[in-house]
Amino acid sequence: MRTCRSAYFGFQGSMMKQAVAFLGVEVIRKIVQAAVIYNAFGAEEDEEGTALSMDDLWRHSLATGMAMEVIGKADKKKTHFLLGVLHDIGKAVFKFRFPEHFKMVTDLVAAENMSMVQAEQELLGITHAECGGELALHWDLPGEVRTAIASHHTPGITTQHKRLAAMVHIADIAVRTMNIGYAGDPLIPAMDPYAARLQKGVDEIVKEKDQFNRQIDRIMGQ
Question: Residue 95 belongs to what H/E stretch?
Answer without folding.
Answer: helix 89-97
